[in-house]
Amino acid sequence: MTQSPPDGLQENVALAPLTTLELGGPARWYVRAASENQIKDALQWASSEQVEVLLLGGGSNVVIDEGGWPGLVIHMDTRGVRPRCVGNGEIDVTVAAGEPWDPFVERTVGEGWVGLECLSGIPGSVGATPIQNVGAYGHEVSHTLQSVRVLDRTTGLIGDVPNEACDFAYRHSLFKETPHRWVVLSVTFRLLETGVPVVRYPELARAISRDKTTVSEVRHTVLQLRRSKSMVIDPHDPNRRSVGSFFTNPIVSTEQADAIAQAAVGLGAVKNTDDVPRFATDPGLEKIPAAWLIEKSGWSKGHRQGPVGISTKHSLALVHHGGATAADLIKLALQIRDSVHQRFGVTLKPEPNLIQIPWNQ
Ligand SMILES: Cc1cc2nc3c(=O)[nH]c(=O)nc-3n(C[C@H](O)[C@H](O)[C@H](O)COP(=O)(O)OP(=O)(O)OC[C@H]3O[C@@H](n4cnc5c(N)ncnc54)[C@H](O)[C@@H]3O)c2cc1C
User: Fold this and answer.
1) For domain 81-228, which CATH number applies: 3.20.20.10, 3.40.920.10, 3.30.465.10, 3.40.50.620?
2) Ligand 1 close to Cβ of residue 179 (< 6 A)
3) Which of 70, 213, 275, 313 is spaced 20 to 30 A from 64 at the CA atom?
4) If we measure between CA atoms, which residue out of 258, 115, 295, 140 comes closest to residue 190?
């Protein structure tokens, strides 16, 4: 049966202005969905017309090809924040997917609720945070996330996925594994109504420099640190067009980490193997900072390659300076990936979702 087009359906809509990189071609079809019914209508229309769907939030973790998206883009714009006391000094806050993330975090901090303050300043929407288990300064959304309300596109059913079933890991979740299956409709976080925030991350702890702090102070300090690395969106910052970190930090076996350390000494990148930064994650596994690998492979902050480059403040962030194509950015990313692989035998993986762009080239 033919489905009538969803309200507000548009054709050939530019996507670049809807992304923080400001790159990429148009959407063949586009609809802004401000209610769950609009999302369902849009999905039904796409299925009856056999067009592929791309969900878009704040566009801060996507790189879209110049060819754009040949199907329907559903721009998630649902709103609503519902707090509910659950006893024991805890509060569950259910937030619609389209709510912008940082204003929501600001509100929790304003209320004195504890749990999300370290995740201040991250762009994008609430609904995208479980996708890659957004994290910063020693905290990940999985630490406070209670459940995710999803629409399963394979069955059309709506249900809650509890935290334990989300398969959360570093920049990973069930939803990232099978992206065409899930639409995140809302997320419920369990926060403390009051209390002293836990500061785990050494750089943040040093910047706060006292034992007892407040959520406001943590937010303020996180924003300061993030600003110093161009990790908040600021229209006056020349590094502003990015997706934040372009690569995830590789997690390797202890033997591989030892081999990287030996290679680093052999290449004269460090004096001693102990000088290589490495952090145990799970038994037998270690995280090596991608920024360190990139710098030790000869790339520096501020490197320019025509209209793209590396941020002057953060070697993990690739920046569009204006007038570039997605291909320019990806070319630089692949050069960095290949030189790190050549030097250290580690293959860096992109953190953002590459839309219609092959990575294994
Ligand atoms: C300056 C800067 C700093 C950043 N810092 C951090 C950081 O510290 N930590 C971190 O983890 N990330 C960081 N990011 C990356 C990014 O902000 C986050 O990943 C954010 O959660 C992406 O949200 P978004 O709404 O912009 O997602 P989008 O870019 O719109 O989408 C990302 C992916 O999620 C999917 N998606 C979006 N909404 C939904 C939904 N409702 N249901 C199902 N799928 C959906 C999209 O299809 C896409 O595949 C940073 C980015 C920038 C530009």
Assistant:
1) 3.30.465.10
2) yes
3) 313
4) 115
